[in-house]
Design brief:
mainly beta; 2 helices; 13 strands; 4-stranded antiparallel sheet; 48% strand
């Protein structure tokens, strides 16, 4: 099966835990699916929904760091206040993004909006666009991605995360499911899609 494999790199990335709204702000180790579809929507310039594409990704980073950040809580035209929080972020993120629509290449070559790996300050760059053939194989190295809850042998952070959001303002969660956030690789004994060049299993959504 033919896929576009797009290498995206940045200086920082951060993916907020939904349950944390104040105080220390940790980051998820891999992006949720809603972030992937948001990134694709930004690149295309219009909403990309889960039914529009088959996607997969491998996400990695060099290290984690924590910085102080001043945020402004807007309540009204008067009486707004600022707050200092500690925010965790990922350093030198790198993601291989797989998309089954080969026509999407033109959007990657000339993105409509900025490419982001998380928040508006997490600017990223598209470094390489390749067309690859993903075969199916068992006993592959799988990880550094997001997997369905209950995937055989998978371990990591278990978190309920949104898949996509509505187009309404304010936006609402369209669907939420439990996922395993795999920050490591493990040997997946069952059959899944496989990138021979990278020697990695690819979980497709």
């Amino acid at each position: 099966m033919k896929f576009l494999r797009v290498l995206i790199e940045g200086w920082t990335a951060s993916f907020r835990y939904p349950a944390f709204v104040s105080g220390f702000q940790p980051t998820l180790p891999v992006p949720p699916l809603s972030t992937i579809y948001g990134l694709l929507s930004s690149i295309k310039g219009e909403i990309v929904k889960p039914d529009d594409l088959t996607v997969g990704f491998i996400f990695d980073y060099e290290s984690k760091a924590v910085d102080l950040e001043q945020i402004y809580e807007i309540k009204s035209l008067s009486g707004n206040k600022s707050n200092i929080i500690k925010r965790e972020f990922l350093v030198n993120p790198k993601m291989y993004l797989y998309v089954n629509d080969l026509e999407f290449r033109k959007y990657f070559e000339s993105p409509y909006y900025h490419v982001l790996l998380g928040r508006s300050s997490d600017l990223a760059m598209i470094k390489c666009i390749d067309t690859v053939d993903l075969s199916k194989k068992s006993n592959v190295k799988l990880g550094k991605t997001i997997l369905p809850f209950g995937t055989e042998g998978a371990y990591g952070i278990l978190q309920a995360l949104p898949i996509s959001f509505t187009e309404d303002v304010p936006r609402k969660t369209a669907q939420t499911k439990p996922f395993i956030l795999m920050d490591n690789y493990y040997n997946y004994s069952e059959e899944c899609h496989y990138d021979e060049e990278l020697d990695k299993g690819i979980w497709l959504w």
